[in-house]
């Protein structure tokens, strides 16, 4: 009976991958009218969504009854609890994006290619979520990036779309090499490419420099895959692709780095250097991207920088050992970002409103008192809930994250009643988020925590510095004009990265189809960095 339950659970988990593979092959080989092709894809996507939901319910029931779920197909694949959550999330996004795209792309000539690539991405993601072997993990992640290229280059006549895809391809190739290196190191130490064997080996108390280096290679690969600085530029430039592609990329594909880190938490536990790499790269990316957000007005570009900041924060959580919070962050961010991209056109109405009413400035006093008020809310509610699983420094980081919610706009003439209402709403929102974090911490996600206190203090200082920078930018914008220019350009990291990518791996991406000949690049020759002398 137990074996039958395991087999059914694995069959439910595998079904979405199979259905999306069928959808991809069908779209690639079929010559039916496009509208019929969309109907087939949407029907298969919704069926796969139903299987993902049943698979999650089956997984939770198995874990509740037997505390674990067995691997399938001789250890190459395995269903896991967190993977079941992400599978449901990804398929939900895939079905929604498919329905949205069928209307959004009406009249476009390359829709069959789009359908096939979208289905292939979803299938590869599901296979990655079931990976229980290094070979499956690497193959699935590589397949995702290969299929994404067809979506990113949907409009072949847009030079910057081709440039972004080329930069992403180069970054992904480096990430693939790092993943292969991580696999070789771990495989040579454990004697098996099975991830279950790796977890068992580490659980027996084995730790070595070889495993530590494997963890470092894995972390560097994830940093490249999730577009952290300084390899982040392509994520901003893929705005040339259709809006639903941006939603799929930002809400699903980029987030997979967080899933892999949660999955490999045991390996990170024996590689302290790898965790510190996550802390450094994640904190820098979150801080810089968070400040860049204040200088951008384009809605899609603003969302892209928001993704970079969120990915930095998610990887920071993994480096700090807060894998449960990283898992919750991944699920919440995916839903939030998918909604924002698919609803991006509504920003036109918001801009019209601002043109009529004017832009509302925040009250300076509220920015000053927001942090202490947020600290009181977080620590008080944590004490009431009896939740002692959070380190004190993480509570302070959460308070800094909630603090901007407590910023109150200046009272407009004749509308003084707005400020008290806004204050009450902000306080209620901060309290709700804290309570939600405490409740969700007990949810059956399938991830734990292993806090790293020294790194937590560093993260707290960094987040405090970012909040201070945000406040200065809001209150005294004219006094930091030069700094704002550098921040607007992301400190020119992408310009330097683009220069070296095209020098080492030239590509035909310009409108005329010619290979671009680059002059030596320097900060002094960039737009904002040009010297006045």
Automatic annotation (TrEMBL):
The compartments listed are:
Cell membrane; Endomembrane system; Membrane
Which GO terms fall under biological process for this protein? ATP synthesis coupled electron transport; electron transport coupled proton transport
The entry's keywords: Cell membrane, Membrane, Transmembrane, Transmembrane helix, Transport
Give all residue intervals belonging to the NADH:quinone oxidoreductase/Mrp antiporter transmembrane domain.
131-386
One GO term describing the cellular component: plasma membrane
The superkingdom listed in its UniProt entry is: Bacteria
For this protein, the parts annotated as crossing the membrane are: 6-29, 41-62, 82-101, 113-141, 177-202, 209-228, 248-269, 276-295, 307-331, 363-385, 391-409, 421-440, 452-476
Q: Which GO terms describe its molecular function?
A: NADH dehydrogenase (ubiquinone) activity; NADH dehydrogenase activity
The membrane topology of this protein is:
Multi-pass membrane protein
* Family annotation (InterPro entries): ND/Mrp_TM, NU5C-like, Transporter_DabB
* PANTHER family noted in UniProt: INORGANIC CARBON TRANSPORTER SUBUNIT DABB-RELATED, NADH-UBIQUINONE OXIDOREDUCTASE CHAIN 5
What does the subunit comment say? Answer: Forms a complex with DabA.
Family statement drawn from the similarity comment of this UniProt entry: Belongs to the inorganic carbon transporter (TC 9.A.2) DabB family.
What's the stated role of this polypeptide?
A: Part of an energy-coupled inorganic carbon pump.
Protein's recorded name: Probable inorganic carbon transporter subunit DabB
* Protein encoded by which gene: dabB
